[in-house]
User: What shape does this take?
Amino acid sequence: MFATPWWLMLLVVVAALAVGYAVLLRRRRRDVVRFTNLELLDRVAPRRPGWYRHVPAAALITALAVLTIALAGPQAEARVPRNRATVVLVIDVSLSMQATDVSPSRLAAAQVAAKAFADQLTPGVNLGLVAFAGTAAVLVSPTVERGPVKRAVDGLQLSESTATGEAIFAAIQSVNTFSQALAGVSEEGPPPARIVLMSDGKQTIPDIDAEDAPRGSFTAARAAAEASIPVSTISFGTRYGSIELTPGESTSVAVDDAAMRTIAELSGGQFFTAASEQELRQVYAELGEEIGYEVRRVDVSRPWLAGGALLLIAGVGSGLALGRRLP
Assistant: This one.
């Protein structure tokens, strides 16, 4: 791709120069052959260097071609850091997160991975934090400062119930509030936003079977889609997780991959699974790369300009060295 491709029309002129040079060489040979006195021929046309006598002209013609391409503004796709984006990290702190199927526990592993995620995000990304159990709370509004988010992650405490829908609605509200605040100081419009929801997927408030409940997770996912805020979900844990709500009585807290996948699909986000701290960190790393960088077309004419300049210098230099004159 080129920014101004019409400059490439000059390559026709460069090609004409190359053809003209070849024609002049043939004409010179034809004129030389007309001499019948070989002794006179040796005096008039002394021996010249071999093929390398064409190096100056070849270097200059190639330099013109390369510089013409540089003028056309060649472009290439490149990953560049985002300088404006909003991400709200939503973490489940329901009692099921104390399960030890993920060492040392789901919550402890999630805290370590979440802090690593905060550190990996590019500096221009605004990161917020929402924690939820029976209710949802915005612990940190989106900010480019990572310290408040990491301190809030360290202070997470377990509580009863799981209101996944409330958490998504709280994250949407956090994004909208931040975007409205930016609207007063920026003319670029709201930055792209993303919600990253990490949970074991078991919604208990409202009733887990009420898919169309006004404050349910699926309703919230549809609201996120309407607001153009995709929800990337991470189903964290295993099917074998369990906790003891009462001494000696074990309760299964298996992950609900299906619910988390549906939330992601309804909102236009991505679905991930993680059964260990390492897998969770890998998922966060992948999301960090996707969120923190974007593919743009960037100008790559500088190497062409440098190459053309070097070829030009080589052509002039070799012309002076071989023929003691400019080519």
The mean pLDDT is 86. The beta strands are 75-81, 85-92, 125-132, 136-143, 193-199, 231-236, 242-246, 249-252, 271-274, 293-299. The two ends are 33 Å apart (CA to CA).
